[in-house]
Write a structure and sequence with these properties.
51% of the residues lie in helices and 6% in strands.
């Protein structure tokens, strides 16, 4: 085997990542889960199908985020774990205002988002987000 081809980017839904966090008591976000799944995928295929001493190339479609590809490249080719680029949340309120949601619900979302960067990120990216709160918080 000389190559692995990754056709089409995918993301683990926040709801599924929340289930994993709850089951294992972790704080890992969806992107970290994706990094782990893809590194496992590439490693396991490489171990099972690779001829010892030969190199293999991983190709990917252009819908993959370049930061993600850079992290995978760094991990596999330089034996280094790169930090993810922080996502700026300055425009999350603008994105929220553009959504077709009742005003009173938007106000509640603003309160819930508070200092929750992951929730703000989900708003900006238009992704589903599950937030667990205590009764005391409500």
């Amino acid at each position: 085997m000389e190559q692995i081809i990754l056709c089409g980017d995918w993301n683990l839904p926040n709801t599924e990542a929340a289930k994993i966090r709850k089951a294992y008591g972790t704080r890992t976000d969806s992107q970290a889960h994706k990094d782990w799944y893809f590194s496992q995928l590439i490693t396991r295929i490489g171990i099972r199908k690779h001829i010892e001493g030969e190199r293999y190339t991983v190709f990917y479609t252009d819908d993959f985020n370049q930061d993600f590809i850079s992290r995978m490249d760094s991990y596999f080719n330089r034996n280094k774990i790169e930090e993810r680029n922080p996502i700026k949340h300055e425009d999350w309120r603008i994105k929220l205002e553009s959504l077709n949601i009742r005003k009173n619900v938007k106000e509640e979302i603003v309160l819930l988002a508070g200092s929750d960067d992951k929730m703000k990120e989900a708003i900006v990216q238009g992704k589903e987000y599950k937030k667990e709160v205590t009764f005391g918080f409500l």
